[in-house]
Structures are given as C-alpha cells and as structure tokens.
Hints:
This protein is an all-alpha fold. It has a domain at 1-52. The chain is built from four helices and no strands. It has helices at residues 2-26, 29-53, 64-69, 75-82. The protein starts with a helix and ends in a 12-residue tail after the last helix. The model has no long low-confidence stretch (mean pLDDT 79).
Amino acid sequence: MVAFYLTAFTTYCYTTAGLEVRLxxxxxxxxxxxxxxxxxxGCWLRRKIxxxxxxxxxxxxxxxxxxxxxxxxxxxxxAQSVAPTADGASKFSV
Length: 94
C-alpha cells in the first residue's frame, strides 16, 4: 500500500508541476485562473439560490438523558465512578 501511495503522490507532483510549466509558458495561467474563479462563483451562487428556498432550518433538540441512555449512564453515575472514595483512594489508578 505504501508503494502505491508513493507512486501516486510522485506522479501527481510531477504532473501538476508539468501542467504549471505549460500554463506559464503559454500564457494560459490567466485563463485557467478565470475558469476556476468562474466555477467557484457559480457554485457559490447555486448555494445562495438554494438556501433562499429553504424556509426554516431543521434542528431537533435531543434531551441530555437520551444522549447518556445509550451508555446506560447518567451524569451523576459517571461523576461518581471517577470520584475518590471516603478513604481518599480513587477507584481508578491514574
């Protein structure tokens, strides 16, 4: 797996560097930058238009007891399980 990663990463680096050299020599860097900027603005506008159509944000509040119910714990039990006992000894060694 490491060999594949190194091969893919090296290929990516050389391919990207080669593309950059070709763009710089041919003067296409400005065109490529304009294309990427246009795509970014297009995505931004699409998101803005879609969000205008959303009337409300759905957000459901979950009760705290329901969160701890999956562990069969409560906040009190969880705090007591790590608190020192009456003789000052902790239940868990630190």
